[in-house]
Design a protein that fits this description.
Order of helices and strands: HHHHHHH
Number of strands: 0
Transmembrane segments: 16-37, 57-78, 87-107, 113-133, 140-159
Shape: elongated
Family: Belongs to the TspO/BZRP family.
Structural class: mainly alpha
Distance between the termini: 71 Å
Membrane topology: Multi-pass membrane protein
InterPro entries: TspO/MBR-related_sf (IPR038330), TspO_MBR (IPR004307)
Helix content: over 70%
Radius of gyration: 18 Å
Subcellular location: Membrane
Largest sheet: none
């Protein structure tokens, strides 16, 4: 009895390079706001932080991991021919726009309440993106779940920073 392996969905060398390109692109876009604004300011250092505020090193490590997962998820959806692909890609772009907008709103504008509004919209867009990705590729959906968890945590953290310093 011969067993056949379905190689149609296996990535080849070229598609692995394309996936790496998506990962790199999402990481670059995600890191873009740090060029213009940073938590390393007297204003931010002076803010009262909640007890659950993570160590500073956690942020670049977590965001790099999350943007890597997002890049792979985006690649999976991009290469799919499933119905709903365009909507999923559009929602992904919209949530990335709000993701990128949060950092300058919080750090450059020093506006935690504005940033809270942005992150709440971001949270809704991430949920929408998860549902849209689910129609296209369930693996891509699973890759977005840690992102939703982190954005939820970040929203709570943003709220607490605003509340403690209002």
């Amino acid at each position: 009895m011969e067993t056949r392996t379905n190689t149609a969905n296996r990535p080849d060398g070229r598609s692995i390079l394309t996936a790496a390109g998506f990962v790199l692109l999402v990481n670059l876009v995600g890191a873009l706001p740090s060029v213009f604004s940073s938590p390393d300011t007297p204003w931010f250092r002076a803010l009262e932080k909640p007890s659950f505020y993570p160590p500073t090193i956690a942020f670049p490590v977590v965001w790099t991991l999350l943007f890597t997962l997002l890049g792979v998820a985006l690649w999976l959806v991009w290469r799919s021919e499933a119905d709903g692909r365009r909507l999923a890609l559009g929602l992904f772009a919209a949530q990335m726009l709000f993701n990128v907008a949060w950092t300058p709103a919080f750090f450059a504008l020093e506006a935690p309440l504005v940033a809270l509004g942005i992150i709440l919209v971001l949270w809704g867009l991430v949920v929408g993106t998860i549902f849209a990705f689910r129609r296209v590729d369930r693996r891509a959906t699973a890759l977005l779940v840690p992102y939703l968890v982190w954005v939820t945590f970040a929203a709570v953290l943003n709220f607490e920073l605003w509340r403690l310093n209002a």
